[in-house]
Design a protein that fits this description.
heterodimer; A: alpha/beta; Rossmann fold; 3 domains; seven-stranded parallel sheet; two-stranded antiparallel sheet; 11 helices; about 40% helix; B: alpha/beta; five-stranded parallel sheet; about 45% helix; globular
């Protein structure tokens, strides 16, 4: 009860919530934060469900799930439906599922998701799975929050041009092709693999060519030297799953574990931690400065200024300058 | 953030598979600005109470069309109470015979809605119940 209520206070940014976060903060930093993102309908919730089951089975690790769904931009209401796919976890006291609405945030998670995750971390949950809203191309905030980010794809969603665009694929630490029993899975895998090869031209991404290989090029037989693998660079593995049937989950969990090992080995774990806290600090500072600044501006003056902008008397830039210069 | 969001769990306990009503209500509450956690079909009272607890909801809406309301409703109320969630308001929608209504209300069900009930009425009652309780 206490934990659930605390999460509400933190989500609502109440004074009690802020005080509790301050007290809990020294106890955070122990959990492995795993982000799960991907387009709507790729099977994020089902995958999260299976991963949680897996972590419960292999060791006595407590698992928290933070599942984010979008708020309506018009009414602020939301339907949070991720629990529908997580019914296998019901009745297990070692699993805590919390649904969150984005409440106006556009990066795929809510503004307070990081704080909610901190509460779970301090409460001793070793694994925290963060499921984003159905993400398109640029909802990439989860990568800043999580140690390991899974990007979930499904067959039939896009071609290689989609795969070379900037954005969501770039944040993947592990790529998961879910619904791998569907037709077109080879095409999806090929597209993702070629994207990885473009991103890592000096690496051998295709296992077939590892260790040097003889290939034919314009009728000429030639040997392709494969460069030394650089252990400092992480190339996202591609795992295939059928989450509704629990297939391929162990491979995904193994990839996640290898990624955690990789981060710890070369200091990236601390680097990511630092980057995350830095961006959180910056966000809070911005929010606080904005609030404090607006407090000093009389509402009438502000309204008048907006009126002036609407009437095209001054530009938004000029309006900002006049706000900053007013005392 | 001016006021805190009303959080509602919409659940379908028992074995009937008709969830259109539950979805209509979930959607209506969403459009009224509430955060609705939808759990899907065939939930046990234990699953519903657990979800209500973890999600720290203000309201639980049960959709029951199976006729098992006199068994399911008291069980769910009892579990909520056991978890320290006495303050959660429970509403039922579905096929509820008139003669059962007084007993359900006595048990602590806040509102009961049959076929043809308007979603505006449900929204109004939910808001009122929360205001009376004091958020």
């Amino acid at each position: 009860m206490a934990l659930a209520r605390l999460l509400t206070q933190v989500e609502n940014d109440s004074p009690e919530g802020r005080a509790a976060l301050a007290e809990l903060f020294p106890y955070t930093g122990k959990a492995h934060l795993i982000g799960v993102t991907g387009a709507p309908g790729t099977g994020k919730s089902s995958l999260v469900n299976q991963l949680a089951l897996h972590y419960r089975k292999i060791g006595d690790q407590r698992v928290a799930i933070v599942a984010v769904d979008p708020s309506s931009p018009f009414t602020g209401g939301a339907v949070l439906g991720d629990r529908v796919r997580m019914r296998d976890l019901a009745g297990d006291e070692g699993v805590f599922i919390r649904s969150m609405a984005t409440r106006g945030s556009l990066g795929g998670i809510a503004q307070k998701t990081a704080s909610v995750v901190q509460v779970f971390d301090a409460a001793g949950y070793e694994i925290i799975l963060i499921e984003t809203v159905g993400a398109g191309q640029s909802e990439v905030d989860v990568a800043r929050l999580a140690h390991t980010t899974l990007v979930v794809e499904a067959p039939g969603l896009g071609d290689e041009i989609q795969a070379i665009k900037a954005g969501i694929l770039e944040i993947a630490d592990v790529l998961v092709i879910n619904k791998a029993d569907r037709p077109g899975v080879e095409n999806t895998e090929r597209a993702l693999r070629s994207t990885l090869e473009l991103a890592h031209p000096m690496k051998r991404v295709s296992p077939a060519l590892a260790g040097g290989a003889r290939v034919r090029h314009h009728g000429q037989a030639m040997t392709v030297a494969t460069p030394e693998t650089d252990s400092r660079i992480w190339i996202p593995p591609i795992n295939k799953t059928v989450a509704t049937e629990g297939k391929g989950i162990e491979e995904v969990a193994a990839s996640i574990a290898r990624h955690a090992g990789h981060l710890r080995q070369n200091g990236d774990w601390q680097r990511r931690d630092r980057a995350r806290l830095e961006s959180e600090l910056e966000l809070l500072l911005r929010e606080e400065l904005m609030d404090r600044f607006l407090e000093r501006i009389p509402q009438e003056a502000y309204d008048e200024l907006i009126e002036n902008v609407v009437n095209r008397n001054i530009s938004p830039y000029e309006a900002v300058r006049s706000l900053l210069n007013s005392k | 953030m001016t006021d805190r969001k009303i959080r509602v769990l919409v659940a379908k306990p028992g074995l009937d598979g008709h969830d259109r009503g539950a979805k209509v209500v979930a959607r209506a509450l969403r459009d009224a600005g509430m955060e609705v956690i939808y759990t899907g079909l065939r939930q046990t009272p234990e699953m519903i109470a657990e979800a209500a607890l973890q999600e720290d909801v203000d309201v639980v809406g049960l959709s029951i069309l199976s006729g098992a309301h006199m068994a399911l409703a008291p069980r769910i109320l009892e579990l909520l109470k056991k978890n320290g969630q006495d303050q959660v308001k429970v509403f039922i929608g579905g096929i509820i015979p008139d003669e059962d209504m007084p007993r359900l209300k006595e048990m602590g069900i806040t509102g009961i809605y049959g076929p043809g009930a308007s979603t505006d009425e449900i929204i109004r009652d939910v808001r009122e119940a929360i205001e009376l309780r004091g958020a």
